[in-house]
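Morning run. Coffee first, then this:
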Amino acid sequence: MKIFIQNMVSRRCKMMVQSKLEKLGIDFKSIELGEVDLVEPLSTALRSRLKTELHKSGLELMEDKKAILIESIINVIVELVHYSDDLPIKKFSEFLQDKLQQDYHKMAEIFCKTKGTTLEHFIILHKVERIKELITYEELNLTEISYQLNYSSVAHLSKQFKQVTGLTPSFFKSLTKRERNNLEDL
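And here it is:
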């Protein structure tokens, strides 16, 4: 049985959820961003205790199917853009559709109505944050970054980066103080 947890967007959150589950004696098979696969269904009392424990840490046990879908979309994007070394060769739309087993257009419509932004723009925002991170680390040049994030060219990466930040990647790199947004705020 799977349960879904809102705001679980980092590996640190996964460790916190694991700790809460262990504290409550809840057996689980796996923990992914936003999702826990339990060994058996939770009793009403245990579900309530877990909900309370998660809430103390700023996390929410999710019940609504649309909210679960939105959170699943967000978690797939965050995992893929921020924690994976390689983005898929196929388009994000195809990847999301395959990963979540949902029609992409339906997901995009629900996402836009719920979040007030398009799915494409949300992906671009996360890719730009990842670009900032990679520029800050100075381990890769722009050509390598554009390849890693599956851009068709450095020019395409630069255009999107400038549209979102108002800066060119080169100018951003030259700044002494590089400001980044928290993933939770995107």
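The mean pLDDT is 88. Good start to the day.
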